[in-house]
Amino acid sequence: MSDFQTFNGKQVLITGGVGFIGSNLARRLVTLGAQVTVVDSLIPVYGGNLFNIDDIRERVILNISDVRDPFAMAYLVKGKDYLLNLAGQTSHLDSMTDPRTDLDINAAAQLSILEACRQHNPGVKIVFASTRQLYGKPEYLPVDEVHPIRPVDVNGINKLAGEWYHLLYNNVYGIRACALRLTNTYGPGMRVKDARQTFLGIWIRNVIEGKPIQVFGDGKQLRDFNYVDDVVDALLLAALNPRADGQVYNLGSREVVNLLRVAQMFKELYSRVRIEVVPFPPERKVIDIGDYYSDYSKIEAELGWQPKVNLREGFAASLAYYGKNQQHYWDAA
Amino acid sequence: MSDFQTFNGKQVLITGGVGFIGSNLARRLVTLGAQVTVVDSLIPVYGGNLFNIDDIRERVILNISDVRDPFAMAYLVKGKDYLLNLAGQTSHLDSMTDPRTDLDINAAAQLSILEACRQHNPGVKIVFASTRQLYGKPEYLPVDEVHPIRPVDVNGINKLAGEWYHLLYNNVYGIRACALRLTNTYGPGMRVKDARQTFLGIWIRNVIEGKPIQVFGDGKQLRDFNYVDDVVDALLLAALNPRADGQVYNLGSREVVNLLRVAQMFKELYSRVRIEVVPFPPERKVIDIGDYYSDYSKIEAELGWQPKVNLREGFAASLAYYGKNQQHYWDAA
C-alpha cells in the first residue's frame, strides 16, 4: 500500500479523532507524515479518551469541540485535503432513550459539516464512517450493499440520513464523499467501560476484571468483526481512490463466528474466563437483528481492501492492551 | 366505504390541517362527524391557508402551532383517536438552500411528535404522509414499495427518516403507525402561488392569469397524479385498517401521462392556454428524476383503495376552483 505515502504533508481532519477508530487512524496518518487535526467532543458517554492519543499528543493538533457546533466546524474544515468523518453517537440503546440527541449528532451535525465544506472547502475529500446497522435484520446473508435498508432503531435511521447527506453532496455539489459501512470493529482504544460501542468492550473489561462474560440468548448469533488496523486501511484507501466518490462500501471479514465461539476464543486466550449464557434482556431483544455478516467483495474489487488480522491475533492484542492500560479506560470497582 | 362512519364522534388531530391535503381531509372528517383539531404553523412559504378551512371554520378546533414545538404537540396529541400527520416542508429546492430547516420539520419534529405520542397517548393510530420522492430516480417502472430507496435531495432524505421513525415506533413501541407514499397530489386547496408544492400549482395560476405554462425539457417526462379526494380516501382507509400498521403504501394512478400531455389537457379545458417548452433550469435538472409512476397494487389489495377521479375531471375542478377563488391564493400582479 505504497500509495499511502500520498498522505505525506497532507492536511487531514478527523472528527471523533480521540475516539477508538479516530485515534488509530490519527496514529497511522502521523506515521505517514500527514498534518493531522483531531476533533473530539470528549463527551464522557461517547468514545473519546485522551489516552488514545497519548503517544502522538505532540504530533497532532487537538481541538476539543462538538460536531454540533457549526462555527467550530466551519473553521476546522478550512484548508484540509481530507476529512475523515468518524464522530457519532454509537449506542443503539441511548438512541432509543434519547432519540433527539442521536438525531442532532448523527444527522443534523453531518448536514452542518457538509454545509461547512460546501461553503468553505468544496475541494475536500470526505470519508464517512457509516454502519451495517442500517440494514436491520438481514433478508439474506452475506449482506451486500444492495441489500434493502431497514434500520431497527433510531440510531440506524439517523446514521443512514447522515450517510445519504454525504452521497447527496457528492452527487449534487461535487464534494467528493463516500461512506464505509463498518461492521463490528474492535481493538486497542475501543470503549470498554460499558457496552455503548460494542459488546466486545464490556467482555474485555470483564475478562480483565475476572468477571464472567455474558452471552445473550443461545449464543448462536453469527457476526463478523474487523480489527481496527484493517478499518484504518479501508478508510485510507477510500480517501485516496477517486473510484470511491459517491459510493458506499461494506467492510467485513472472512471469519464469521457465533458469539459463543467468540467467548470460547477469549477463554482459549485467557483460561480463567467464565462464560455465562443468559436470556436476552428485553430492551436488547427488541432491537436484535439475529445473524449478520457482510459481503465485502465490492471494496475488495474496487479499492483493493482485504482484512488482514485474524480474530485470534486481534483478540490477543486487544486483551494485552487493556490488561496493560486498564487504568486509563475504567475506574476499578 | 361505509366503514368511514367509524370516524363519527372520534377525536382526530391533523397536522398541516390548514394546508392542501389536510384541509380537504378535515372537511371530509367533519362531514363524517369526527371531532377534528387542525394544527398548522401558517408559515407563509408553506401550504397553510386559512381560506382552505373557511367553510368548516366553525366545525373544527383550529390550533396555530408548529410541529417543531414539542410542548404544543405534547398537549395536542392527548386524547386523540387518530393522528393524521401531514405537516411538512415540501419544497425540494428549499431543502437544498436551507437543509437544516427541512431536517427540523421533516425529521426532528416527527421524532418529537412520536415521542409525545409514546409518552402521552400510546393508543393513538397514526397515518404519516410520506412521498414518492424518496425513491429517487426510478430503476424500474412502475415503482413499487420494494424499489430501492435513493433520495436525490435533502427533502427526500429527511422525509424518509420521518417515515421510518413512524415505522420504528410501530415496531418497537406498538404505537400503531403507517405511511402513505404520495405521488403528485393536486386539487382545490393546493398552493398555487408558486411551485413550492407542485408545478401544477404554478401552471394553474398561470392559466388563470393568462400567462403561458412552461414545460421543462422535452415534456416527455411521465408522471402520475392523484386528485386530493382520492388521497383523502387513502388516508382514511389507512387510519381504519389494522392491516396497515407498520406498513408503507404507494399511491398512484391508472392514468400515466407526460407533462406535455398534461399541458395539452389544460389547453383542451381552457382554450386560451399557451404552452412554452423551455430548457430545464439547472437547479431543477440536477434533482430531476426522469419518468416516474407508482405501482399502487399493494394498497389496492390490502386496503381496497382505488383512485376514482380522472385527470380531466380533476383538472377541470381545480381550474374552476382557482378561477373562482384566486384572490384567496395569490395577490394579483
Task: Present the secondary structure layout.
The structure is a homodimer of 333-residue chains.
Chain A: E1 11-15, H1 20-31, E2 35-40, E3 60-64, H2 70-77, E4 82-85, H3 92-97, H4 99-120, E5 125-131, H5 154-173, E6 177-182, E7 184-186, H6 199-209, E8 213-216, E9 222-227, H7 228-240, E10 248-250, E11 256-258, H8 259-269, E12 275-278, H9 282-285, H10 297-303, H11 311-325
Parallel strand pairs in A: 1-2, 1-4, 2-3, 4-5, 5-6, 6-10, 7-9, 8-12
Antiparallel strand pairs in A: 9-11
Characterize the structure shown:
By secondary structure, the first copy, chain A, is an alpha/beta fold. Chain A has one domain: Rossmann fold (3-Layer(aba) Sandwich). Chain A is 39% helix and 17% strand. In chain A, the strands form 3 sheets. The first copy, chain A, has a 7-stranded parallel sheet, sandwiched between helices. In chain A, strands 7-9-11 form a 3-stranded mixed sheet. In chain A, helix 6 crosses helix 11. Chain A is globular, with a radius of gyration of 19 Å. The N and C termini of chain A lie far apart (44 Å). Chains A and B meet through helix 4 and helix 5 of A and helix 4 and helix 5 of B.
